[in-house]
Amino acid sequence: MGVAGDGVMDLSEEDAQAFRIQRILQQQAKNLTGQKPRQKIPRSELIKALEDRTILDEGCTFSGAKYDSIDFYIEPYPPSCTRPELLTKIYIDDLKLETIHRGNVIFLRTITEAKRLTSASIIVEDERGDATQLQVYHIGRNIDLKEMFPKGQVIVIKEPFFKFSSTAMPSIRVDHFTDMLLLDDDEVMVPESWAIEEIDRSAEDYKGFGNDAMRMGKTREAIKWYTAGIKIAEASDMRLALLLNRCLAHLYYESYQLCVEDADAALLISPNSEKALFRKAKALYELRRFAKCGNTLKQLTKTYPSNAEAIKDLERVRQRVSEETFGQFDSKKLVKMARSDKPGMEYDFADYTAPVYTKTSDINGNGLFTKRAVKAGELLCCCKAFANCKGKENGISLTMDPVSMTVSQAPGAFVADVVLEKLRREPFLLAEIAKLYNDLEYKQGVGNPEQSDTPVIDSFLIKQIVRLNAFSSSSYYDEFPEMRSTPTSFRNPSKSKENPFDPNCGFWILPSYMNHSCVPNARRVILGDMMVIHAAVDIPKDTEILISYTDSKQPYQDRQGMFELSWGFTCHCQQCKFESTVNKSMEDIMFEMQSIVLEVGYGMGTVQVAEKMMELCGKLERFYTHPAVQVPRWFLGEHLIRLYGYYSDVGMAQEAFTALHMAPRAFGAIYDVTENDGVVFWHKGWADADLVRAYVRLAAITGVVGGRVADGWLQVAKDMYRVVAGEVDTFEETFGGVIGSWKE
């Protein structure tokens, strides 16, 4: 799955001229590949240039508009997988332009504060006093650069990439954060000339330094001090105190796995430590390991029965366990939150994935399959976003390629950076994300002395995975805007020709396994940070779950163009096979039907309009070669509902009722209606907002006399509404005006 809307922009003459300049600069840089810079830039000039530079100088205006993220295309290159001690040390004077220095390592020290431009830009020096610019990419926007890169921070760059920046300044560029190590003052790798004279400090001293840093909000610095204290602490009580403090710092820093490890180490010293148990439970909750969290809280509340917060947390965990086991969610709470969704809102719900599993797909790569047979309207899974950028957290990114003279724009400017930042804190999460890349032969660099101790993270690969699998995540999109009484209740995101993208963009891991079909057997809905997926039809056991990546009602050529542009595939579903053979006569009929709709608009239909639409519906139906249960007739179904409206306008009730009965069958519904049994379905139809509208109106008409038939139409309307809207709590709000009168 991926975000629809990636596109290539046309260039204005002014932009094209700027591109030509960049193209010349890149060609000149390429000609200097393997050479050293002809002259050194004095450190004073480097510092002054960085101080004066703004984000506008790096190209963040384009065609008169400001974009949220912008960069020049760079050919992806793999990260370093070698331990720094196994690499050959070099200096700034050894660096060659446009070159990745494989087999080498460089030690640098910051001499300025980091500045957030298109990258985190810093002026650094080596042991010999030479200076250059360092550019670190993919640093999360919420990261405190002053804390990460304070003046005097020693940085190790494995296999450094030295190249010209977009401002024509030679710079060391870091794209993979695992290529970079930030050294503490006391680490053995710190060059001797930069080593701080060893001061006789006690574990108590380090504890105090850490506590001071925590009070100032410098969590990373606090972790450094606590770690130094742990290394020398001999007394068990001091070691326990330092572990507990570092555990808390990791919790604040959102390094939850390290928090759990520190808590476990503390529990080896004091098996019933209240602080260790409590902090471990907090971290396990954030890691979404609810069963283990519950066990930890049970031990905590048993030992400390007066801990009110732990008791409250245990009840919360029980709710999460119920959600992930049985799929029992407080949907009203979820809907209420989603309707007022905003950045930073915390969706405290578990994932429910019991009915599904992943395996190799016959369509493409891996897919999501059913563990058992499921019924239409049944919840397949409900998953929380790994990363979800909303409103101001999101944006449009531009990637400029001076060689091809193209500019690609796409939504979700910061989703990949959020994912990368989360991986920096919790690298163990890499394994699940890496599985989404079908051609992946991913080596984590563990177990081989030639490689790194920790997972090696390829930023380019992660960005590609996120680009292909991110979802437009408009919270609570409204499929039924015409039913709303006030504009404030409309839920559709505002888009324009100038900004056609969804304002939200997110990344969900398990739902990303779902492949595409224009005739989907499931539908997904975003409710805040939660993706809710229901079966659109009855699905047998071990059947692949398919969703539509775009609107299946869009013209065939438009859909195929979007698939090729955004995801690089061609759809061969039954609908596409049929529509690829549609002749001009069928297209002419559809065009005439649409012209009638546009001509009538919001006005009243006439007998002539109704009869003409009926005639055209009959002609159109004869062109369909597949049963509707295999290939739904979206266009026909929509216009049969309009036909019902036209007949109703002129008081032709029987004709209106007949047209309305035909609509569900166009969506593939197979059913029988009897007075005794009500409505008996063999197939409820392919879930769609227009199908819901048809069922609601059938319920309203038959509801005048009541009985099983009316109840049957009402129930199937709710079933399909749940699939389309992701919930059923707002059904009465949406259609109460239509069905309310006969219910009373």
TrEMBL record:
<feature type="domain" description="SET">
    <location>
        <begin position="354"/>
        <end position="550"/>
    </location>
</feature>
<dbReference type="InterPro" id="IPR001214">
    <property type="entry name" value="SET_dom"/>
</dbReference>
<dbReference type="Pfam" id="PF00856">
    <property type="entry name" value="SET"/>
</dbReference>
<protein>
    <recommendedName>
        <fullName>SET domain-containing protein</fullName>
    </recommendedName>
</protein>
<dbReference type="InterPro" id="IPR011990">
    <property type="entry name" value="TPR-like_helical_dom_sf"/>
</dbReference>
<dbReference type="InterPro" id="IPR019734">
    <property type="entry name" value="TPR_rpt"/>
</dbReference>
<dbReference type="InterPro" id="IPR053209">
    <property type="entry name" value="Gramillin-biosynth_MTr"/>
</dbReference>
<dbReference type="InterPro" id="IPR046341">
    <property type="entry name" value="SET_dom_sf"/>
</dbReference>
